[in-house]
């Protein structure tokens, strides 16, 4: 009887922790996406310095912003976390291969949190083929 209460409490703490990490990543990734539009010249400079087309910063900013919003929807959170983790992998590659003062720890920490979110939300993910088959 007592172990059931502990399990329930641990499960609840785990879900609260997952939501906390999700909200923090939503704020961080959404803010990073918006920053690419607010500081357009600065981010275009950095993308050019990394060897990417400068206007790619707009695409990445939009993907970060949309992906951040999708993190808050459990059915889409795992897909959004994968998208954002891939973007962070690109950011990590950019800062490691370019002589820059931008750190490599931030992309690595974000990738770790995004992988936790993606893994925890994977059982709830949206399955387009299953949704399509259910309509028949």
Q: What is the 3D shape?
A: globular
Residues in β-strands, percent: under 5%
Terminal Cα separation, in Å?
45 Å
Could you give a short account of the major beta sheet?
A: none
User: Helix/strand-derived class?
Assistant: mainly alpha
- Uncertain parts: none
The number of helical runs is: 6
Number of domains: 1
Mean pLDDT: 89
Helix content: over 70%
Oligomer: single chain
How does this structure look, described?
With 136 residues, this protein is mainly α. The chain has one domain (21-134). It is built from six helices and no strands. It has helices spanning 2-38, 40-49, 56-71, 74-97, 105-121, 128-134. The longest helix is centred in the N-terminal third of the chain and has 37 residues, at 2-38. It is globular. The model has no long low-confidence stretch (mean pLDDT 89).
What descriptive keywords fit this protein?
single chain; 136 residues; mainly alpha; 6 helices; 82% helix; globular
Any chance you could write out the topology, listing elements then pairs?
Layout: H1 2-38, H2 40-49, H3 56-71, H4 74-97, H5 105-121, H6 128-134
Helix pairs in contact: 1-2, 1-3, 1-5, 3-4, 4-5
Gist of the model:
It is built from 6 helices and no strands. By secondary structure, the chain is mainly alpha-helical.
């Amino acid at each position: 009887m007592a172990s059931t209460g502990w399990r329930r409490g641990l499960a609840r703490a785990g879900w609260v922790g997952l939501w906390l990490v999700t909200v923090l990543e939503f704020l961080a990734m959404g803010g990073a996406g918006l920053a690419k539009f607010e500081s357009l010249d600065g981010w275009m400079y950095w993308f050019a310095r990394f060897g990417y087309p400068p206007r790619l910063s707009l695409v990445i900013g939009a993907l970060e912003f949309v992906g951040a919003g999708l993190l808050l929807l459990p059915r889409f959170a795992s897909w959004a976390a994968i998208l954002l983790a891939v973007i962070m992998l690109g950011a990590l590659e950019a800062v490691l291969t370019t002589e820059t003062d931008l750190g490599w720890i931030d992309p690595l920490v974000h990738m770790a949190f995004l992988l936790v979110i993606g893994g925890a939300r994977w059982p709830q993910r949206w399955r387009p083929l299953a949704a399509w088959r259910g309509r028949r």
